[in-house]
Every structure is written in structure tokens, then in C-alpha cells.
User: Fold this.
Amino acid sequence: MAWRFALIIDPADADAAAADFAATFQQVDPAAPALSIGELSTQRGDGIFESIGVVDGHAQEVGPHLDRLAHSARLCDLPAPNLAQWREAIAVAAAACPPGECVIKLILSRGIEHGPTPTAWVTAASAPDNTAARTGGVRVVTLDRGFDSAAPARAPWLLLGAKTLSYAVNMAAIREARRRGADDALFVTTDGIVLEGPTSSVILRFGDRFVTPEPGAGILHGTTQVSLFAHLRDLGSDAAYETVPVSRLHEADAAWLVSSVRLAAPVVAIDGAQLPLDAAFTASLNEYLLTPRD
Ligand code: PLP
Assistant:
């Protein structure tokens, strides 16, 4: 069976200082019951999470993931996480990881109904083998996300920039993509603006210019996309945030779905129209993403 690890955290106040937070962690058997039946994360998906890639015991991009956890907590009116405490919990989980690729998840839940709030835990597990997606690529179909491009500003309670636990819609989109003969989905707004994948950011290449949708467009601001943009700029490439109409997708010379665990998956078809796969360049992106980064 795949390797797994779990740590329950007693969340400290955001500004609480401590020499270390070891006394607030309790390692538990990941296969044994650990959550109350009244947990609002399981009843309503009311909570937030992060998935962090781990390479040979090194957790990647911990700072950006913690910043996003704090951002999601703000959007969801959850108590601000104590970042030193979470950083220490990540270090404990990473130290337990076997060599190779693993994934650490941080979960901060609204807590138990009528009980003390919030609840928090960290899990670690071996990562799935993503070689096929990284080398052979993914076929995607565009799927209507059901809101227009003005919705994020008009309806902030939709929590569109937060990484909430409510991923049923995202998982349904992937199932729909498979029903349509593809591997993954690319969400678009009702007024035809490209957003993101259900579990990834999209990066498009037009000539020698790399483009991704604006983070304010109702998408999650991906840590992998931010890191890759920094890398591409270091290489001298132009990388920019832009509004991308669906009608421009057919002009793309290449595209990738990027995320913390699967890393860069080249897109080989959008709605049945083929895209060229630059295997050597994609391999260089994944080599960069597999190098230890903070
Ligand atoms: N967008 C969505 C909806 C996601 O679920 C994810 C990752 O899970 C991403 C984008 C990519 O984010 P990251 O690169 O931080 O993993």
C-alpha cells in the first residue's frame, strides 16, 4: 500500500510565538478514525487546503503555499493561520517522507458544529506516478464554469480565489471531460474567457510570449505558474498575465496545465484541435520544477 502519514494540529493564534510548536502536533494513524462526526469540512466542505509537492524530502514552495493558505483563510473568514506553526508541521511531515515524490496536504476546517473552532491537520502520502501526463501530455476540452467574467467582483461570496475544500464541481468537470474523450478540462466563463483547469493553472505560448489568465479573473493564483513565470523570465522570455478569449485558443503554439504535484503537463489537444508537444522544452520545465525550491 502507498505510504501515508497524518498529523492533527491544535491551531495556535496567528501571532502566538513559541520556541517550537511540537506540543501542538499529534501524529495519528492515517487509516484510523480521527475526525468528529460533526466536522464542517466533511459536512459542508467548509474549509481550505493546500497541496504541496515534496521531492526527496524537500517540500517545494512552502512560503507561497502558506501565503495562499492565509489568503484563503481571509476570504473564508477563517481564523488567520499561525504560519510558523504550519511551517513546522510541514517540516515534520517532509522529514517523514520517503525518497521520491510525495504530496503534503494542509487542511484548515471551520471546525466542529457548535464546538471549538477551527480544526486542522496535515497529511503526507506518496505522489501518484505522473510520468504519462508530463511526457505524453493531456487532451483537454473547454467547459463552461457557469459564471461570467464580472462575477468575481460582483459576488465575492463565491470565494473564487480561495482554495476551498469544496472540490465536487472540479471533480465533476474532470469526469465530464473524460466522458467527452479527453483527459482534463479547461474552464471558461459564460462570456468566453479562459480561466484554469479544475486542478491546475493554464499557461499558453503565443510565439515566444507565455501568457496566463489574470489571477483576479475568478481563478486560483497557482504557485507553480508563478514559479514557472519567474523561471521563464530568468531565461529571457516574456511572460505576462492577460485576458485570453476562448476564440484565441486556436492561435496558441503550445499550452501546459501546471500544478504542484502533477507539475507541467503539456496540452496536446484543445476541443479536438491538436497542439504540438515540445518534449525537450517540457522536460526542462519539469526538471526545473523537480529541483528543490523554497
Ligand atoms: N487552479 C486550481 C483550481 C487548482 O486546484 C490548482 C491546484 O490544485 C491550481 C490552479 C494550481 O495551483 P498550484 O500550482 O499552487 O498547485
Observations:
- Residues 51, 196, 198-201, 220, 222-225, 258-260 surround pyridoxal-5'-phosphate (CB under 6 Å).
- The CA atoms of residues 21 and 36 lie 23 Å apart.
